[in-house]
Amino acid sequence: MCLYRHSTRKSLSALLCEMASVTVRSSALCALALMNFLFVFGTGAEFVRFISFRAIYHNITGGPPLCRDSVSWSEALRDSAVLCAAGVDIVLLVLFAAQHSLLAWDPIKRTCKSVLGVLNRAFYCSTTALALQVLMRFWQPVTGAPCLWTVSTAPWDTWFPLLCFTLHFLCWAIICSILLIFDYPELLGIKQVYYECLGLGDPLSLKSPRAQRLYAHLRHPVCLELGVVLWLIPSLPLDRLLLATGLSAYIALAHSLDKQDCEYLSAQLHSKLQLFSLPPGGSEEPDNHKQE
Q1: In terms of CB atoms within 10 Å, which of 98, 197, 225, 254 comes out highest?
Q2: Helices assigned H by DSSP within 117-237
Q3: pTM score, whole prediction
Q4: How would you classify residue 234: left for phi > 0, otherwise alpha for psi between -120 and 50, otherwise beta?
Q5: Structure confidence by residue, pLDDT tens digits, 231-267
């Protein structure tokens, strides 16, 4: 009897220790996921300022000139300061593309997943945010070269920046909406931690094969909107041309949508529109019953 009680107390003690260990691990995972979210969210807000507000706000307030239209391109391209600043910007763009591509490469992705486990996606987002922080902190404005275009004739020197500001605001609103539709918590690695703590497995594996295929081809579904905010500005100096060209080319090359993906997107859009078109209290069901 005493041996049985001793064995029971020992098993209860082991169970409590195991529960405490699981609780500590879950708390640590949640804390890391929250820190990642705050860092990525803050970096995203700063990226909006870097891409949109800096370029447009300058024209509204009449800040220092972004470029020198009094010099020719042949003279500017012989200026060591222009070449040095442009070279630094190109290196920063290459570093960002290298980080974003290498960590998405299957062999490195599998290695990171085996080491980091459920924090793999959060690590990818954090390193991407870190690469963006480096790009924004060390970006060099090229003020010694002429602008490729500038709107300086009244009244468009006032109205066109305001138009750009309005369109940029709409594009960023659309980008935020699309990210929410494309499962923003899963994209940031928060959902993976949440599902791990609840023992539900990988959230991406619970999606349909067609949805997984689409996510593999289109993890950043904001190409058109980013193109607008990159190129639609009142003045286009050389450094902005490098930034817009580099990011636009990377976005275009990073996606590989095919006919099956487009058919899946069309079917999903059709099912959502059917839901909105149903009469109140209607019993009609959309053809696509599974929501992914």
Answers
A1: 225
A2: 120-138, 156-181, 184-188, 190-198, 209-217, 223-231
A3: 0.78
A4: alpha
A5: 999 889 999 999 999 999 888 776 655 566 566 666 6
